[in-house]
Design a protein that fits this description.
Layout lengths: L15 H35 L17 H57 L5 H12 L2 H17 L13 H41 L5 H25 L8
Helix pairs in contact: 2-3, 2-4, 2-5, 2-6, 4-5, 5-6
Length: about 250
């Protein structure tokens, strides 16, 4: 007979003691498996923290945040930003050059139209005789068509170019601030060119009418009527151009 507080080492299969023994063995297996899993996790954590053996007895440390990798990334970003700014400055130089050529061509053409208009203003004010006014008109007509055509060509070259003054996003520095200022100046100069284009269009119309008159395609009375229309429109447009003319320049 077993001792009162002892346990039969070989319980009868299927008995209560046998079932209890099976549950205890299963519990021990679970605890053993859990212990092995914890040990494995600890070993992996140790490898990540302290590195692995390179085979020569030295350990390779894991890269820490903010180390050489981050520094290299920062340097790459700086070089990328610098290259973008340099390219933007080059584009702005080209844009300003092309736009400047258009503005210069506009001034040359409108200088002739201005003489034409001023002569009419003085004629109507009694400050010039008709013969004197005709002399001004004849002088200001020389090369007028070529100058107006040169303006149109210069504007086409500027507007067809992709180059503009534009600061790259998320950049800073003296050149970036200058690019912003040049962008504003370019926008203002475009308004100047718009005003010039309108005034020169009226000048071109008057030139064409005068050619038609000389060719006998317009009767003098109708030509005079058209001239009065162009004179009044041109005077207002040249005045608008003068007001739109900018004085600031791109500092790049």
């Amino acid at each position: 007979m077993p001792e009162p507080y002892g346990r039969d080492p070989n319980p009868v299969p299927g008995s209560r003691l046998d079932r209890l023994s099976q549950r205890q063995r299963a519990r021990r297996r679970k605890l053993l498996g859990l212990a092995l899993a914890i040990a494995s996790v600890a070993a992996v954590a140790g490898l990540v923290a302290f590195g692995s053996d390179d085979g020569d007895g030295t350990a390779t440390r894991a890269t820490k945040p903010g180390g050489a990798g981050s520094k290299a990334t920062s340097q790459t970003e700086h070089r990328t930003a610098s290259a973008a700014i340099a390219a933007a400055v080059a584009d702005c130089h080209k844009a300003w050059q092309l736009q400047g050529a258009s503005r210069s061509a506009a001034k040359r053409s409108l200088a002739q139209w201005r003489v034409h208009i001023d002569a009419m203003n003085k004629l109507t004010a009694g400050k010039l005789t008709l013969d004197q006014a005709k002399q001004f008109w004849q002088q200001s007509r020389i090369g007028a068509t070529a100058n107006a055509t040169a303006f149109r060509a210069a504007v086409r070259q500027y507007t067809s170019s992709p180059s503009r003054c534009q600061a790259p996003p998320e950049t800073e520095g003296d050149d970036v601030r200058a690019l912003v200022d040049c962008h504003d100046a370019e926008a203002a100069a475009n308004k100047e060119l718009d005003s010039a284009s309108a005034a020169i269009a009226t000048w071109e119309t008057h030139i064409r009418h005068m050619e038609m008159l000389r060719a006998g395609q317009l009767v003098p009375t109708h030509a005079l009527h058209l001239w009065l229309q162009n004179w009044r429109a041109g005077a207002a447009q040249v005045d608008a151009y003068d007001k739109a003319t900018i004085t600031t320049e791109c500092s790049l």
